[in-house]
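Thread: "does anyone have the structure for this chain?"

Original post by V.I.:
We have the sequence but no experimental structure in hand. Need at least a predicted one for the grant figures.
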Amino acid sequence: MARGVPTTQSCLRHFPVGSNGFRPTEVQSPPSRSWSQVNLHVRPHFLAGTRRLLYRVSSGNGRDNSYYVTSLDAGERKLIATLDAGNVTYSQGHLLFMQNHTLMAQPFDLKNLAITGSPRPLAHGVLLSTGSPPVFGVFSASQTGRLVYLSQGRDYDDPMTVLSNWADSPAGR
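Reply from O.Q.:
Generated one for you, tokens below.
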């Protein structure tokens, strides 16, 4: 597999664990060009309980970020969303992401890798990172339904807001 930004195949090389121990999975590096011209593969994380990765491919300007899922078992990747958000995570059957200062939840079918409904607001006034795009919401969600975020207008050392089961809240339904 050639180095560079793949167009239709996965951006992973998977090396199974052999009898001699751990062997790494290699994520391809972007080509050596100006950072403003490169689509960067960033913020990968496993979808809980699967051998699939959710990751962002950033555009050079930080807007119109493409979010893909790829499997360690297959060489394909699937575009699941294009958003003006720096971080997307999966929790309780939803993709969580920022829209301005509002944390959104959008139903997502993990088996079919498909968005299955419209996004709904979970929390308003969530703090965003400062600096150039893309912006990142200051939040985290667990697979058991806990959600934590820092509110806009607060200092980084102020208490965070914790929802013990956001999926059962009116916004999560």
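V.I.: this helps a lot. The first strand starts at residue 12 and ends at 13.
O.Q.: and The chain is about 0% helix and 40% strand.
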